[in-house]
Design brief:
- There is one protein chain.
- The chain is an alpha+beta fold and about 140 residues long.
- It has a single domain, classed as Alpha-Beta Plaits (2-Layer Sandwich), CATH 3.30.70.
- It contains seven helices and four strands.
- A four-stranded antiparallel sheet has the order 2-3-1-4, sandwiched between helices.
- Helix 3 packs across helix 4.
- The structure holds adenosine-3',5'-cyclic-monophosphate.
């Protein structure tokens, strides 16, 4: 099934010059970049994006981190894109992620884990529309 998912290269990845490396992995895995932009989120924008985590103890720190510097936002499309992108990223905690995954190779901590991906079709729909209008996505 062809799906869309949201990918973010987080501030730690952008700051360390990993944009090209992450996109290379995405494209060489057969996923297509349908939309892309670089933005510096405000704390409020990061809070809105991660609203489902509002009650978590790490919410304040996570949203400060996500607004400390620019991020790259992308809509990815492809066969089972949600799981395919999650497989490329690896587990949330870099220490627990499989060898060869982005988070294992580049993640600094469970919070500064270099990339984000939607975890289900409903969250992918919310997350892609949070950052992109229909006009910004290419076919
Ligand atoms: P992400 O996939 O973007 O989804 C939520 C983010 O919260 C996660 O990646 C991490 O950056 C962060 N996160 C998840 N669990 C923790 C935790 N236990 N401590 C700190 N940050 C976390």
């Amino acid at each position: 099934m062809i799906q869309e998912t949201l990918a973010i290269i987080k501030p730690d990845g952008v700051a360390r010059g990993l944009i090209g490396e992450v996109i290379r992995r995405i494209e060489s895995h057969g996923l297509k970049v349908k939309a892309m932009k670089m933005v510096h989120l405000s704390k409020k924008e990061a809070e809105g994006f991660y609203a489902v985590h509002r009650e978590r103890p790490f919410f304040g720190s996570l949203t400060s981190f996500m607004s400390e510097g620019p991020v790259v936002l992308m809509i990815l499309s492809g066969e089972n894109a949600i799981q395919a992108w999650r497989d490329l990223m690896g587990a949330t905690d870099p220490a627990k992620s499989a060898p060869g995954t982005i988070r294992r190779e580049f993640g600094l901590s469970i919070e500064r884990n270099t990339t984000h991906g939607s975890d289900a079709p409903e969250t992918a729909a919310f997350e892609t529309s949070y950052f992109f209008s229909g006009m910004e996505a290419c076919n």
